[in-house]
Amino acid sequence: MSERDASKEASQSFRVPGMGSIDTTRTITFTFDGRIYEGHPGDTLASALLANGVRLVGRSFKYHRPRGILSAGSEEPNALVELRTGNRREPNTKATTVELYDGLEASSQNRWPSLAFDVLSINQLAGSVLSAGFYYKTFMWPAAFWEKLYEPVIRRAAGLGRAASEADPDSYDKVTAHCDVLVIGGGPAGLAAALSAASAGARVIIADENPELGGRCLAEKRTIDEMPSAVWAKHAQEKLRSTNEVRVLTRTTVFGVYDGRTYGALERVSDHLPVPPQHQPRQRLWRIIAKRVVLASGATERPMVFGENDRPGVMLAGAVRTYINRFGVVPGRHAAVFANNDDAITTIADIQRAGAEVVAYVDSRKELSPAVLAVLSEAGVDAILGGHVESTTGTRHITGATVRTADGEIRNLPCDLIAMSGGWNPNLQLATHLNARPHWNETIAAFVPSALPPGMAVAGAANGLLTLAEALASGAQLGIEAAHEAGRPAVEARSYSTTPEASSIAPLWRVPETKGKAFVDFQHDVTTDDVVLAHREGFAAVEHLKRYTTLGMGTDQGKTSNVNALAIMAALTESTIPAVGTTTARPPYTPVAIGALGGAHRGRDFKPERLPPSYKWAREQGAVFTQAGLWLRPQYFPRPGERDWQETVFREVDTTRNAVGICDVSTLGKIDVQGRDAIKFLESIYINNWGSLAVGRARYGVMLREDGMVLDDGTTARLGEHHFLMTTTTGNAAKVLQHLEFCRQCLWPDLDVQLAPVTDQWAQFSMAGPKSRDLLRKIVDSEFDISDAAFPYMAAGEVAICGGLKARLFRLSFSGERAYEIAVPSRYGDALIRRLMTATEEFDGTAYGTEAMGVMRIEKGHLGAAEMNGTTTAYDLGLGRMMSDRKDFIGRTLGSRSGLMDPDRPRLVGLRPINPKHKISAGAHLLPQKAHRTAANDEGHVTSAAFSPILGHTIALGLLKRGPERVGEIVGVCDPVRGRDILAKVVSPEFFDPSGEKLRG
Amino acid sequence: MRINCPCCGERSLDEFVYYGDADLRRPDPQDEEAGAKFIAYVYERTNPSGFHRELWYHGLGCRTWIVAERDTRTHEIYATCRAVDGGAPEGAAADRERS
Amino acid sequence: MVDQLITLPAFPAPSIERADQVRIVARENVQIVGITARERETESLVLAFRAVYGLDLPMKPARVEKDGLAVVWAGWHQWLLMSDVAAVPDLEQIMRADFGGYAAVVDHSDARAIVAVSGRRARDLLAKGVSIDLHPRVFTTGDAAATAISHVGMHIWQTDEKPTFELAVPRTYADSLWRWMERASAEYQNSDSLL
Fold it and tell me: Which chain B residues are Cβ-neighbours of C145 within 8 angstroms?
């Protein structure tokens, strides 16, 4: 049949009427590789495919071998499909966990041109070169081949599925939850634990990855308290859902354990629906803080390792029972069961009840208990004890099993299903996320948790208690204990009655003689031969084995393969399994999409946005905004007819220098500093002196880190005897506050100093330019004298504006012009900027943004973040003379150490291109004029550059070795990134009004 | 990880900023060997495996500097207190004498 | 007092209503004054405050209220005092006059924006952005905390059992947080919300 044949298949011929617990009264349709099939609500994609007789669902990673469905849960290594289409397309979803919905579209991946005929399956003929470590051996050289040849070919050939190429249209959510008891897993142990904890009145969260609680209660034909186990589970779930303080999270995987009793869980809120309902997220990330945890995550069945064990039709025995008992689907008509333990025996009855034939029961053990023998005899099955399945036959699906009996006889059993069981591994990953090593339990031949994360207890199969009775009893008891330890009253654990079951095992890690490839890790195509090769080549340690063979590194994280592999390695090294040990399980337990981790924080909401008080007005003006930390600041204010940003910025600078410009400077950090020791405090954190600062005056200050590097700069005004207002740069506000709190609390706790961040309190606008005082006069109430005599440069004080509104006025300048900053409570900021802009019309003034501000500050040689970059000292930046020698201050000692006083250090200079048409860009390197353009000759770099409309050419600030001594020298400015190499003259960093006449007016 | 702020109670790690060794004492700048002592104060760390007294800042909370006694291997926090109360006992005492 | 300049509300809308599940109301026109005890003056401040207002400044995260004046613990020996603009014309001045000797008094009326979140799903909504436990067994009327919402530092307290929580958030984040609350509460328009 071709892929284009979209006719409906003969419907669900493997569905068994009357079996399973899903709703078969409703039929829904879905497509797989373009063909339409039918299923029922409650199906997984895997159960629906099996119901329709579809066994070939994918191609393997390396050899492109045909693969079917191995499991019925999240451990699935084989049945990975692309789900949905377009911008919701999702690769590598497990058919065994995808819930069927009407209209579901899935396609197989890793095949070309079609699933049935895959060209690259030829890889398996070349198996010898694709063996373990082949990446390391084959693609070593020539190095150039890697990028051009190997990688593209490997990427096309291997790789699993394709991600959507457009943005995900769905939303994701994050929630924090607190509880007394978190129960992880909703199987019999988890249900019993949650019921216990709930009966003690605890705040309980029970999470399970399936759509319903129940776990193996739904998959097995068992009895609890005289009820079918599935019915009991249903009652238990209803009871929990109706109990106060119990939260039932289905479709939720607890994927990680973190320090501080914190657990990560992913709830698939809408994954079972075609599209999330309105206002609902696709997935929700839970951060759960739990006083106590009962881990009841169950166990995962191990495959048997024999030849051609990866062929579709070879399935875990427990999965076969799940498909029969939960979904009413029998995965084959003629089944062989191959096991090494008692648990698999129940598979026989389930298969027979589903109307299929069990052609043989093969058990690697020679001797079985009388009870088990009785079951076999009652079933009337051909039991081959002490035998092995050595290989399978078939192409895209098995047609038979080759069995060697205990006597060495070879028998070919025709069958279309092999149900295998190598025993069960407790799902102990979460118990080891904080680095605990598990303990080997000989009785069940598996690792069990040993040391546990604080507050965790492990119940049921996850703790190696593999029978139903043990699961219920341990869950009930641990639930009570957990609730009590979390502070709830002690209550009695109730008991549950179940039917007895056998559970002994004699491990068989690999069938001794096999034909064909015997797979250990299905997802990454790792065979027994690869493990043998790794051993032979010296990669015997588990961590080496993992990396050399890629075993356990697939999206399934080796849930079905790890223990088999290390047991095989133990045999090869003639060691024991506990001596070989295991690799470390790390979060997440199952894959978590990045979208879920990001939650609502994406796009515009990636980070919270801070809006300056004039934001609304600026947006109305059509301002272009830029991000400054979290702030959105106007970058420039384009006017109609202006060709580009540069023309706008020139106009803004020009207007400010010749008339008046207005800029929102509310983003500067503001910290209110009070206290009797405030002066002392400022003296200790700033390099310069503060004692002489009069009330009503402001001063520029520079603070260092203790290592002597410049931390920040800004002006601080003295508002009262013991009251100061400090300003920081926009980007450093939080960092400076933290630093000041450190100094106050950790260094000088006895000082009487109170700090309060007040950045948000004030809307502050700078008015700069020769007309700024005239503009100011228009809004400051007439009783306040703002003449140069009354309010000189660096004055600070309270005024009233616009008829009585209290405001703070500062005469500060970043632009080098006469300038004022007026501050009003933020709620008035919007009205004030409008008032100022109206008033400014008379002077042909302008608003200006960060771009023009940057130009003007470079013209003045003022420092920005590019100069105060964490590696520059006060000396480097020409501020050495500010450093007081009459006091101690943070950074003084180390800032003066000889290495930092070395005149060879790069220090601040101005740069002017020799050819005025040449452009200097930030980041360019400075070198001696004629030196080779090599790193060895590097003498510094350009930190900031801008085109100065006043001067008519580019100007720049840079850090140049021995810079200030070299004023007048011509240096090379080399910018290999932009392909520029020009000459510039070293000049003083003050390009504009160096004497400060304009400033003082 | 969760840290018990002495003012606010137990809070998640993302409310805090880590700073480092709580027992470092800012040297006396008048000391003859102030240079070497400041180098040690700023740069030299023992980086212990196990018990560590360290400073944390409850930045997204009450802005208190906290001393936490933590096991660096398990991240278990044994005790916390305000730095003012017992954070840098020697440093605080020295500074008191100086002032 | 100042009629020439009009004020701009901190939040872009007066409220968000989500059926009978959650109600989010912007509380404009609250005066907020921060006081921080001066070194070694806490005791005097507490006594003076009790004498004038009959209220004990809480020494742990809590909120107390009397005669329209609310006090919220805001850090070690720090409090936020709140009253409606209409009730007291200039809270900062009064506080400075009464307690300036014992405490640093700073006006925060425009630094913080207050929003009230109430209704039966209020806790569920806040759990999406606040990581502290607001369960009634742990946090109840009169309790307060300094923490963060959606990565923004804030103060939160509970005022009644509806329950109603009030959040004082930095004003410049108000717009961004409002957008967050609109989106986070959107699902409560559906009565069969899955959370």
Answer: 8
Superfamily designation of domain B2-98: Folate-binding superfamily (3.30.2270.10)
Q: What is the CATH number of the domain that holds A979?
A: 2.40.30.110
The verdict on A291 and A431 lying in the same domain is yes
How far is the C-alpha of C46 from the C-alpha of C29, rounded, in Å? 27
Contact A778, A838 (CB under 8 A): no
* The predicted structure's pLDDT at residue A165: 87
Burial of A562 (0-12, 13-18, 19+ CB in 10 A): buried
Cβ atoms of residues A951 and A650 within 8 Å: no
Residue A340 lies in a domain: no
- Residue A891's alpha-carbon distances to A185, A336, A708, A742, A898, in angstroms, are 55, 79, 4, 14, 14
Nearest to A481 by CA among A726, A105, A196: A196
Q: What is the pLDDT of residues A23-46, one digit of tens each?
A: 999 999 999 999 999 999 999 999
Tokens of A940: 């510094």
Distance in angstroms (rounded) separating the CA atoms of residues C163 and C118: 5
- How close B28 comes to chain A (CA, Å)? 9
pLDDT in tens, A63-96: 889 999 999 999 999 999 999 999 999 999 999 9
Give me the residue from C75, C131, C132 closest to B62, CB to CB.
C75
Contacting subunits of B (3+ beta carbon pairs below 8 A): A, C
Beta strand A906-913 with A980-987 is antiparallel
Which tens digits make up the pLDDT trace of A232-259? Answer: 999 999 999 999 999 999 999 999 999 9
A660 neighbors A836 (Cβ within 8 angstroms)? no
> Using one digit for the tens of pLDDT, what is the confidence trace for A466-512?
999 999 999 999 999 999 999 999 999 999 999 889 889 999 999 99
CA distance A629 to A627: 6
Beta strand pairing call for A227-228 and B77-82:
unpaired
Closest Cβ–Cβ partner in C76, C131, C153 for B82: C76
Residue pairs spanning A and B at CB distance below 8 A: 84
Q: What are the angstrom distances between the C-alpha of C45 and each of A420, A555, A741, C8, C71?
A: 77, 62, 22, 35, 14
Note whether A819 and A730 are same-domain residues. Answer: yes
**pLDDT tens profile C93-116:** 999 999 999 999 999 999 999 999
Provide ipTM, 2 decimals. Answer: 0.96
B11 touching chain C per CB within 8 A? yes
- The residue behind tokens 């006594």 is C47
B65–chain A nearest CA distance, Å: 7
Secondary structure string (H, E, C) spanning A6-57: CCCCCCCCCECCCCCCCCCCCCEEEEECCEEEEECCCCEHHHHHHHCCCCCC
pTM: 0.93
Compute the distance between CA of residue B13 and CA of residue B2 in angstroms, rounded to an integer: 5
A648, A651, A654, A655: CA torsion to nearest 10: -120
Q: Are residues C76 and B59, on separate chains, in Cβ contact within 8 Å?
A: no
With a CB cutoff of 8 Å and minimum separation 6, the contacts of C18 are C24, C119, C121, C185, C186, C188, C189
The residue whose two tokens read 């598990």 is A438
One domain for residues A975 and A864: no
Chains with 3 or more CB pairs under 8 A to chain C: A, B
Q: Are residues A972 and A844 in the same domain?
A: no
pLDDT band at A7 (very low <50, low <70, confident <90, very high): very low
Q: Domain C5-186, what fold?
A: Gyrase A; domain 2 (3.30.1360)
Range of the domain at A875: 614-886
Q: Which amino acid is at A559?
A: K
In angstroms, the CA A81 to CA A104 distance is 12
Q: Which residues pair with residue A672 across a beta bridge?
A: A725, A756
A279 at the C interface (CB within 8 A)?
yes
- Give one DSSP letter per residue of A867-895, joined into a string: TSSSS-BTTTTT-GGGS-SSS--TTHHHH
